[in-house]
C-alpha cells in the first residue's frame, strides 16, 4: 500500500475525516501499528520516559533519537514517520534546528519532525520548511518546558485560549503542515482547529482535532500507576506480560520447560 503523505493528512482535514497517530520506538511495534492502518507514527522523545526510565523527556539525546528513528522507519512500510526534535537540539537558532532535522532525516530515515513551542519558533519552522523538512508544530502543554510551565498543567484556559490560536496561526503561516495540541481545554482546541487550514492533532484536547495521538504503552496498558485523564486503555498488557513471564519462570524452575518437543534429536 502507498505511503501516507502530507497531502493525505491535508485531505482528511479538508474532507472532515480523522486519522490516528501512535508513538513507536522499535521495529516490531512499528510494524504492528503500521499493519493496523495507523496513519502516522511518532518517534517521540517520550522514549525518555517509557523506554529509558527518565523522569522527564529532557535528558534524551539526538544520538539516542536517531537510533529509535532508525528502528521505527525500518518497520514502517505505509505510515508517515514523524520524529521529535529533542530538547537542546533546535532552540539555539534556526540553523541548529535545520542541522538537527537533517540528521534525523538522513540517518534516522524519518519523513518529518516535530518541535515544541509557539510564535518564538516561527523562524525555526520557516527555516526548516525552506530546507525541505516537513514540520509538525506542538503547542499547549509542551513537556520539554515542564519546569517553565510549573509542571504538568493544562494550558490555554480562559483568555489564554486566544494565545493558542495566535501561536497556531503563526506556525501555520510559517509552513507547519500540522499543529499538535497537548492538554488544552476542548473549547480552546476547537477554536484552534477552526482557525487553521492545516490538520490538527490532539492529545488531551478533545475530539475536534483531525488526528489523535497517544503513547502506545499508555494506550495498551503496559505502564503502572495512574494514567493521565486523556488516556484510554484499550488493553492490559502489563497483566498479560506478567502472567506469561511468571508462567515461564515457574516452568523453568520445576523443569517442565523445555519439554521433549522443544529439543532436537540425533
TrEMBL record:
Highest taxon of the lineage: Bacteria
Signal peptide: none
Pathway stated in the Swiss-Prot or TrEMBL entry: Cofactor biosynthesis; (R)-pantothenate biosynthesis; (R)-pantoate from 3-methyl-2-oxobutanoate: step 1/2
InterPro entries with a match to the protein in the record: Pantoate_hydroxy_MeTrfase, Pyrv/PenolPyrv_kinase-like_dom, Pyrv_kinase-like_dom_sf
Keyword Cytoplasm: yes
Primary localisation category: cytoplasm
Catalytic site positions: 182 (proton acceptor)
Entry annotated with the keyword Transferase: yes
Reactions that this protein is recorded to catalyse: (6R)-5,10-methylene-5,6,7,8-tetrahydrofolate + 3-methyl-2-oxobutanoate + H2O = 2-dehydropantoate + (6S)-5,6,7,8-tetrahydrofolate
PANTHER family, per the entry: 3-METHYL-2-OXOBUTANOATE HYDROXYMETHYLTRANSFERASE
Protein name: 3-methyl-2-oxobutanoate hydroxymethyltransferase
The species this protein was found in: Paeniglutamicibacter antarcticus
Amino acid at each position: 500500500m502507498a505511503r501516507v503523505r502530507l497531502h493525505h493528512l491535508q485531505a482528511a482535514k479538508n474532507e472532515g475525516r480523522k486519522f490516528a497517530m501512535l508513538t513507536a520506538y522499535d521495529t516490531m511495534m512499528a510494524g504492528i501499528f503500521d499493519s493496523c492502518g495507523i496513519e502516522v507514527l511518532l518517534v517521540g522523545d517520550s522514549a525518555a520516559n517509557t523506554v529509558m526510565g527518565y523522569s522527564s523527556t529532557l535528558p534524551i539525546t539526538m544520538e539516542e533519537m536517531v537510533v529509535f528513528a532508525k528502528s521505527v522507519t525500518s518497520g514502517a512500510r505505509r505510515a508517515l514517520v514523524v520524529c521529535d526534535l529533542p530538547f537542546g537540539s533546535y532552540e539555539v537558532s534556526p540553523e541548529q534546528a535545520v542541522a538537527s532535522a537533517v540528521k534525523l532525516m538522513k540517518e534516522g530515515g524519518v519523513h518529518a519532525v516535530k518541535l515544541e513551542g509557539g510564535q518564538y519558533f516561527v523562524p525555526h519552522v520557516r527555516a526548516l520548511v525552506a530546507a525541505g523538512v516537513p514540520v509538525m508544530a506542538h503547542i499547549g502543554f509542551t513537556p520539554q518546558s515542564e519546569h517553565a510551565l510549573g509542571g504538568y498543567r493544562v494550558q490555554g484556559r480562559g483568555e489564554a485560549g486566544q494565545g493558542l490560536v495566535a501561536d497556531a496561526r503563526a506556525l501555520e503561516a510559517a509552513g507547519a503542515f500540522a499543529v499538535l495540541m497537548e492538554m488544552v481545554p476542548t473549547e480552546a482546541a476547537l477554536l484552534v482547529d477552526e482557525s487553521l487550514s492545516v490538520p490538527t492533532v490532539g492529545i488531551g484536547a478533545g475530539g475536534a482535532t483531525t488526528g489523535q495521538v497517544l503513547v502506545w504503552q499508555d494506550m495498551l496498558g503496559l505502564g503502572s500507576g495512574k494514567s493521565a485523564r486523556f488516556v484510554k486503555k484499550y488493553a492490559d498488557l502489563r497483566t498479560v506480560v506478567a502472567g506469561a513471564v511468571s508462567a515461564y519462570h515457574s516452568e523453568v524452575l520445576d523443569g517442565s520447560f523445555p519439554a521433549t518437543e522443544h529439543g532436537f534429536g540425533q
